[in-house]
Amino acid sequence: AQLAGWKNAGAVVPQQQQEQPRKGVPMLNLAELEASAAQTTWAIKHTLPANSVGMMFGAPGTFKSFIALDMALHIAHGMQWMGRKTVQAPVIYIAAEGGTGLWRRIKAWHRYRDLSWDAIPLYVVPVAVQIRSNSAAVVAAAEQIGVRPALVVVDTLSQTFDGEENSANDMASYLTSLGAAFRELWMCSVMVIHHSGHGATERPRGSSAILGNTDFLFGVFRDEKQLLATVTCERQKDGELFK
User: Which SS3 state, helix, strand or coil, does residue 217 take?
Assistant: First the structure.
């Protein structure tokens, strides 16, 4: 009746012409595919894609955890990060190497900006969680307090991974588990903190399966003489590499 329009009010549309809901595997025509591609959304505009699984890697002492926490806090506050828009939303930070040091950083971050940390939607898991076998415990804890995050930070891979880093199957399984456990459930970004390769700081340590199983890949590099770090974009599956 809606398709017939107001001129033919009361007319009945034949059953075969009625719009039917699509079930099962999606199949898009090109106009629908174009519309879908234009709907790319960002946790941090043109930097951190929403609904994605990716990685930030760097050598020890390059401030990668500081930078990940900085991103998380900007999202929790809804503040621009490096001049790039964010959407204010809850964040879960899995501090697998312990939460005590993380609290000192959070407190200092707020003191520096003269901001209050009271009631911001940042939630910390202060213990190591084996993602492939026990991610359900994180989901249960979040659901118990009604949290649906836009970002999950996993710090670090080595503390939450029960496989062999050089095994393509193990690494792919770990990253797939992150997607199934968190991204697909919450439609959120998942960012894993990882170390760079031994003697090859330009790439993450371990299997090359990392590249094929991530939506984004950020490298962090520290100036040898100054307290400065540069974040590079090594992979952005559905967007342009940022400078």
Answer: strand
